[in-house]
Design a protein that fits this description.
This protein has 318 residues and is mainly α. The protein contains 13 helices and no strands. It starts with a helix and ends with a helix.
Amino acid sequence: MLGAGLFAWLGYSIYDQLKHQSNLKSALWQMSGALEQKGLITLTLVLILMLFNWGLEARKWQMLVLPLETISFGRAFRAILTGVSLSVNTPNRIGEYGGRVLYLQHRNKLKAIAATIVGSFSQLIVTIIFGLIGLIFYINNFPALNAGEHFAPFFWEKILLTVLIIICLLTILLYFRLQIIVAVFEKIPWLRKAKVFVQIIARYSPAELSNLLALSACRYVVFSAQYLILLHTLGVEILWWQGFLMNAVVYLVMALVPTIAIAELGLRGKVSLYFMGLLSSNTAGIIAATVSIWLINLVLPAVLGSVLLLGIKIFKDK
């Protein structure tokens, strides 16, 4: 109920902004013409990139579970889609872990959850790094709209930037010293019994962890490119590198704010309107691109994953 209420409130807020866009009719006409000319090509390209996006995630997961068991890329890809289907109604998509482990042997399922968290860890690091670069760009290029009497412009943004830099450095340090987490489980009595399920995270070498970061960075570039392609097609005229940096701030906010999929679309739309709106007044194009990327990168894979999940259930019933 809370998620639905938040979605409704954010949706109305976005609608209100769209309604007051001065050039709404001309923007819609421009979008319609652009879609007629380049819509099919753009859709095909973005769908191909969607496969690359989740394919890179599948490759990451295939590498992560290798110390437990060897699985094919195809099986890893199916596991990823199934995970997406189970994640849409859970906070920050934590249900994704449960969907992935369905494709592993029973004895490895709990251990694989710890391995999956390492993969999410690597993606979070990349999101924070790019987000920090985007935040620096934002602070240096856009004057504060409401500077307080007692604080300099962007005082709180600079505080946030400092805190995030410290968190980023500590996160990277912990990422390459995952043995620390295992040591914590060993020293705390009520966690000691669960140590066997997290020991896998200490088995990854620095080279393997670096490869995971590289794959996470490639995936980040892919889904950022999808969004920029859609923005361009829908008539949002911005410099691509500025769009990339401001979108990086959007991803950073989305990573830091707990939400569920039904509310995520509204929140993503509102945050995108604020930051991308600093680069373009085409509110309709920004919202259309945001909704499209949500449908293509989350809803479509979730539907495919639901079909796979149904297949697993039928197979088990038989």
